[in-house]
Amino acid sequence: MLLLSLVPAVWIGLRTLGWFGGLGANPIEKLLELSGTHAMIALLIALAVTPLRQLTGLAWITRLRRMLGLVAFGYVTAHALTWLGLDLFFDWELVLYDLTERPFVMVGFAAWVILLALAATSTDGAQRWLRKKWVWLHRGVYVAGVLAILHFLWLARADYGEVTLYAAILAFLLGWRVVHSWISARRVRARRAATAS
């Protein structure tokens, strides 16, 4: 699964070397586009693990969640480094300008910061140390997903087809969680009522 998740990175690398049509007339913009697209897809795949387990009943899928989350963080970080290093050449004045004056950069950076916190606390040790706080912290991935959609939306100039698709998938994945939690809570209440009677 890890090797499969690295296929987009290899493909981007090969295009950077000139294969499959290369990166076109504006290679930095194309790299930003490709890395951003695959970061979004990787994040949605990571978010799909829990609904897929609940739909299929396959418990082993849960073991993929941490790895897929870290893969998503890797793609988001590659996207951020492309912006920071190749687009802005580590010019901190330009970085500060982008972070304070360009809303799509602000929300994209905020999503990366959230994912950084989740990646840093993804270990078993951090989970034991944070206990219940760990669950609440890692629900921040939902916020990161919404911020990523906003990042895409504000970048889209005319064609909203791609971001609409991502937004629909995210809405389904988050909506599934709400509905599943509600149904589970109703079942628990029904069992308690049956036991009490």
Task: Write a brief structural summary.
The chain has helices at residues 2-5, 7-16, 27-47, 49-56, 65-87, 92-101, 103-120, 124-130, 132-138, 140-155, 161-196. It is mostly helical.
What this model shows, in words?
By secondary structure, the chain is mainly α. It has a single domain, classed as Four Helix Bundle (Hemerythrin (Met), subunit A) (Up-down Bundle). The protein contains eleven helices and no strands. Helix 3 packs parallel to helix 11, helix 5 packs across helix 7 (103-120) and helix 7 runs antiparallel to helix 10 (140-155). It is elongated. The mean pLDDT is 89.
Please supply descriptive tags for the structure shown above.
single chain, mainly alpha, Four Helix Bundle (Hemerythrin (Met), subunit A), about 200 residues
Fold topology:
Layout: H1 2-5, H2 7-16, H3 27-47, H4 49-56, H5 65-87, H6 92-101, H7 103-120, H8 124-130, H9 132-138, H10 140-155, H11 161-196
Helix pairs in contact: 2-3, 3-5, 3-10, 3-11, 5-7, 6-7, 7-10, 8-9, 10-11
